[in-house]
Design brief:
- The protein has 18 helices and 15 strands.
- The chain has 539 residues and is α/β, with parallel strands linked by helices.
- Helix 4 runs antiparallel to helix 7.
- The chain starts with 5 loop residues before the first strand and ends in a 16-residue tail after the last strand.
């Protein structure tokens, strides 16, 4: 008995329906929530949505349904859409341009953190199995002219279906879309494909900007007359949210290690982005969040470069996914994931390795103004349980798996809180080490996270949400300062004033560029005193 074949148009329509029914489940979850907020909705209008989307995707897919392109194209599209679907369905993650950029910059070790039973089963059931069926599908390919005629008729039929639904329900679609503009971000595969296309265009196809050097006139003009140079340790956090910090009203003792250190917590601090690939280069850029553009930022000096121009000894130590170009022109070391078997597992290292590096630097530090940046892995998910050693298992039971959506809320919160508490321990040890060098340097520490994290609030997990719809869990971040008495006195910095400013004023990553220049007494035309957090509290 001959195997039944499908026409190209039948195959195209089946693929479109499959994408609507499976890969667009997250979209219809959002639609459901939007409907629940409306007092009255036409049920026929709601029923038309999957039909409308099926017609639209079938129309789009028909452009690629040609003999030699059809199977390779739809196999690749299905595999990619499987990953996009899993991220949206399990974590409510949207693949916009920022998330695509973050994905392309993810290293091998970081990618492995997302491999778990749930992700493998998803790939098998919604990616590999459908791809195999596509590969084995028996498709009838008619002669060229006949195929072209059939395609034109099929596309006209899809347009007719779209037009009829639009004619009947135009006002409903217009109003519903206007009130729920985020819906388009969840349409698979169109929004993700558009984001990838934008990333490729911006990153590889556009003409690079001419490089702009900043702060070549930079020099240190210190008010310090006692001869001691300044030593600032800047700790860049990873995925820490203010909501889980005791300093910001959290009921748990997640800052137990630094509570008696005289740390100043800046209450209203906002991130530049919701993912490291954006936030890290943005926070060290002159551009600020509103004007930030990855290409332009890469074509000009960062504040790290300007500090180096001034003659300050600048060093960067990285225990995360790299500095994203921020530290490329200064002395920098990325921790080897196999460097210390006691602290590293081949995929990541505990942040204790950075304390060991700090010891090495401080032991041999020259008597000159110095900035040491420690980029911690902090609270990087979803493998939160791998961020702290056994002796720091404070909150139990925790979630010892990467498919965090399958842990209880209590386990997930416990695990994340353990990462915050361990980071607090790291900060307390940084302060202790700086205090031991107060006779040699005027010492200070500044800690600021790159972005926050969602832990199931409103159904969202992890981070990377488009900034326009990102919850405050992903944008409200901690910033802490510890300043020794000698540093305060010799640099004429009023700590009482700073503590007051920290509770009354709002700040963001936009302030970091000028605040680093200000606290290190660097004068340059690139400096803007109005953005310097510390300028308001100089005696």
């Amino acid at each position: 008995m001959p195997k039944k074949s499908l026409s190209i148009n039948q195959f195209t329509l089946l693929i479109a329906v499959f994408f609507v029914v499976v890969f667009n489940l997250p979209l219809f979850n959002i639609v459901k929530k939007a409907i629940e907020k409306q007092p009255e909705v036409d049920p026929l209008f709601i029923a038309s949505m999957p039909i409308f989307l099926s017609f639209a995707l079938a129309l789009l897919f028909s452009l690629f349904s040609v003999k030699y392109l059809l199977k390779p194209f739809f196999i690749l599209l299905t595999l990619a859409s499987s990953a996009v679907f899993f991220a949206a369905y399990q974590y409510n993650v949207v693949f916009d341009h920022g998330m695509v950029e973050n994905t392309f910059q993810t290293n091998h070790a970081e990618a492995l953190m997302y491999v778990n039973f749930a992700s493998v089963m998803n790939l098998l059931l919604t990616g590999l199995l459908p791809s195999y069926l596509i590969y084995k599908a028996n498709i009838d390919y008619p002669p060229l002219l006949k195929a072209l005629l059939h395609k034109i008729l099929f596309m006209l039929a899809m347009l007719l279906g779209i037009g009829m639904i639009a004619f009947i329900y135009y006002q409903d679609y217009a109003a519903f879309g206007r009130n729920n503009s985020e819906l388009r971000r969840y349409i698979v595969p169109t929004y993700a494909i558009g984001s990838v296309a934008k990333y490729i265009n911006v990153t590889y196809l556009q003409t690079p900007y001419e490089y702009e050097a900043l702060g070549l006139d930079a020099k240190v003009v210190s008010p310090n007359s006692n001869g001691k140079p300044n030593l600032l340790v800047l700790v860049v956090g990873e995925t820490a949210r203010a909501k889980s910090y005791q300093y910001y009203g959290y009921e748990r003792p997640t800052n137990a290690h630094t509570q008696d250190k005289g740390v100043i917590a800046f209450e209203y601090m906002r991130s530049c982005g919701t993912a490291t690939a954006v936030s890290l280069p943005c926070m060290f850029s002159r551009l600020g969040r509103e004007r930030y553009d990855a290409r332009r930022a890469a074509a000009q000096d960062t504040v790290i470069d300007v500090l180096a121009h001034s003659g300050i000894n600048v060093q960067w130590f990285d225990n995360d996914s790299g500095c994203k170009g921020v530290c490329d022109k200064v002395n920098n070391i990325t921790i080897d994931l196999k460097s210390d078997p006691a602290l590293c597992n081949g995929q990541s290292c505990f942040d204790q390795v950075l304390l060991n590096k700090l010891d090495e630097v401080l032991t041999s530090a020259a008597a000159q103004d110095t900035l040491i940046t420690l980029h911690v892995i902090g609270s990087h998910g979803p493998t939160y349980y791998q961020r702290y050693p056994p002796e720091h298992h404070q909150f139990m039971p925790d979630c010892e798996r990467s498919d965090i959506q399958n842990c209880t809320a209590e386990q997930l919160i416990n695990t994340y809180d353990n990462t915050i508490l361990y980071t607090d321990y790291i900060l307390s040890e940084v302060i202790n080490k700086l205090e031991r060098h107060n006779d040699q340097f005027d010492t200070a520490m500044l800690y600021v996270s790159d972005h926050g994290e969602s832990l199931g609030e409103k159904g969202m997990y992890l981070h990377g949400a488009p900034y326009s719809i990102a919850p405050q869990e992903q944008t409200h971040i901690p910033m802490l300062a510890w300043i020794s008495d000698d540093f305060s006195q010799d640099n004429r910095l009023n700590k009482a004033c700073l503590a007051e400013q920290a509770t009354q004023s709002s700040f963001s990553h936009d302030n970091l560029f000028d605040s680093l220049l200000g606290i290190m007494n660097v004068k340059t035309v690139a400096y803007q005193s109005k953005l310097d957090i510390f300028s308001r509290c100089r005696d």
